[in-house]
Amino acid sequence: MNTDDPTNPPTEPASTTTSGAAPAWENLQDKAATAAREAANVWQNTKGRATAALQTGERYVQEHPGPSVAAIFGAGLVIGALVGWAAAHESRPDPMHSFQQFLRRLGQRMDIEC
Fold first, then answer.
1. What are the φ and ψ backbone dihedral angles of 17, each rounded to 5 degrees?
2. What is the pTM of this model?
3. Cβ-contact 76, 84 below 8 angstroms
4. Is 68 within 8 Å of 61 (Cβ atoms)?
5. Are the CB atoms for 114 and 104 separated by under 8 Å?
6. What pLDDT is recorded for position 4?
7. What count of other Cβ atoms lies within 10 Å of the Cβ of residue 61?
8. Which SS3 state, helix, strand or coil, does residue 17 take?
9. Are 114 and 107 in contact (CB under 8 A)?
10. With contact defined as beta carbons under 8 Å apart, do 15 and 21 qualify?
């Protein structure tokens, strides 16, 4: 039998060729399981902190409704002022210039000299 023939599979058991892969695979599975457990722990911790923060905020609003409404109103004023300022300082073309460009293009399409 020719051992150099690629069409002739080896007669040795498959376990000798993959014996090194099994421990590596198990090690990889262990690392993945550990990472999944750590991610679940982080998620639970974050979820608990977010719930506590939400409850603290709700309790504050219930105990102090006046300052809460004033703070929200103030935040709305600030956001509105910023949006208004940005809109007022946006560079826009002069309306007369835009109208002149429109007439010029219309004249070109109609073959009219200006």
1. -85, -25
2. 0.43
3. no
4. yes
5. yes
6. 57
7. 14
8. helix
9. yes
10. no
Contact 78, 85 (CB under 8 A): no
Q: In whole angstroms, what is the distance from residue 80 CA to residue 87 CA?
A: 11
Q: Could you give the angle at which helices 65-88 and 21-63 cross, rounded to 10 degrees?
A: 110
Sign of torsion, CA 95 101 104 110? negative
Opening angle at CA 30, ends 28 and 32, nearest 5: 70
Residue 78 to residues 46, 57, 74, 86, Cα–Cα distance (Å): 31, 21, 6, 12
Please tell me the distance from the alpha carbon of residue 69 to that of residue 12, in angstroms, as a whole number. Answer: 79
Residue with tokens 């993945």: 32
pLDDT above 90: residue 65: yes
pLDDT digits (tens, 9 = 90+) for 25-59: 989 999 999 999 999 999 999 999 999 999 999 99
SS3 93: coil
The DSSP code for 3 is T
- Which residues 6+ apart lie within 8 Å of 114 measured at CB? 103, 104, 107
